[in-house]
Amino acid sequence: MRFVIYGAGGIGGSIGARMHLNGETVLLIARGEHYAAINAKGLAFHSPAIHETLAIDVAEHPDDITFTSDDVVILCMKTQHVEGALRDLQVNASPHTPIVCCQNGVASERMALRRFKRVYGMVVLVPAEHLEPGVVVNFAENRAGNLDAGCYPRGVDEVIEHVTGAIHAAGFVSRPDPNIMPKKYAKLLMNLTNALDAAGSERPSDVIEAMQDEARACCQAAGIEIADRQATRESRGDIRGGAVVGFERHGSSTLQSLLRGTRNVEADYMNGEIVQLGRLHGIRTPVNEAVQQIGVQLARGDIQPRSLTADQIRTRIREFTV
Predict the structure, then answer these.
(1) DSSP H/E element including 260
(2) Model pLDDT for residues 57-94, shown as the tens digit of each residue
(3) Per-residue pLDDT at 94
(4) Mean pLDDT, to the nearest integer, of 7-29?
(5) Cα 135 from chain centroid?
(6) Contact 89/61 with Cβ under 8 angstroms?
(7) Average pLDDT over residues 124-131
(8) Which residues are registered as beta bridge partners of 2?
(9) Is 215 within 8 Å of 312 (Cβ atoms)?
């Protein structure tokens, strides 16, 4: 089996690097300067215990790949880039190609199922960053992160058993789960804070609680199951954050996008997912709507990263609750 890691940032780069180090056949798909750096010099991968530059296969676009029946594609870009990635894959890969959706949020699986027959959801709990072309850092000791996965919408098959087995052997906690989406919804609740983390150095607990209460109410109205906290804690396994010599850990994936100078963030698929559910089921979601708009303003430069105080965040939220 060849693992095509589409999106070689913090998450995809860490997965690809560790699988490559464990002897798996890996092909990264990276963009722009990141692709150029990996292609020219290799992928510089750093963790508390590893500092290596890896001669790992890389392509810039699916057009450059001859796909075979042995390929599994693991989508590791942020959700706002998934639709375009799937269009490019559809042109080049068979509709039978297994597609593993390794994103925060819960929208990618539905997108993939429009074009591909075998779609899998994967929970993402990996402390990793990519801020410099050609460089990926995994801030984890012992196990590198949690990447449980299962068939979408439910079930387990031989493909995902093989995928999770290979990822687990490479140093992650990764197990096949026949009911994976409740775990992804539980992770979504955690990621509702991403835009707050990017907007200010403080994350007001009252705002977080209100966002999550709105999310639970929307999911209950929609008949969506959310894994409980105990199951979520157990799924993490033996994962501990760790310091990496020469690198500072900055924060959420949203903040990383802004620090790299991109003008897009994933708030539409975090807080926006709850806003959409609320509109579909007649439930007001003013706090998530306000935080979604903070994400939009961060992306277009109206708010600078880490510039808002907790009270300024609350003031912006009050504008949506009147």
Answers:
(1) none
(2) 999 999 999 999 999 999 999 999 999 999 999 999 99
(3) 98
(4) 99
(5) 18
(6) no
(7) 95
(8) 25, 71
(9) no
pLDDT tens, residue by residue, 166-209: 999 999 999 999 999 999 999 999 999 999 999 988 889 999 99
- Residue identified by tokens 């098959």 is 157
Measured CA to CA, the distance from residue 235 to residue 125 in angstroms comes to 10
DSSP string, 281-316: HT---HHHHHHHHHHHHHHTTSS-TT---HHHHHHH
Residues contacting 92, CB < 8 A, separation 6+: 62, 63, 65, 67
Those residues whose C-beta lies under 8 Å from the C-beta of residue 255, and which sit 6 or more positions away, are 194, 197, 198, 305, 306
Question: What is the pTM assigned to this prediction?
Answer: 0.95
Q: Which single residue is written with the structure tokens 């907790």?
A: 310
Three-state DSSP class for residue 213: helix
SS3 of 250, please? coil
The vertex-40 CA angle with 38 and 43, nearest 5°, equals 25
CA-wise closest residue to 205 among 122, 297, 310:
310
User: Rounded to whole angstroms, how far apart are CA atoms 65 and 58?
Assistant: 10
For residue 9, how many other CB atoms are within 10 A of its CB?
23
pLDDT at residue 189, rounded to an integer: 97
Distance CA 299, CA 81 (A): 15
| Domains in the chain: ranges and CATH | 2-182 (3.40.50.720), 191-225+232-321 (1.10.1040)
User: What is the pLDDT at residue 83?
Assistant: 98
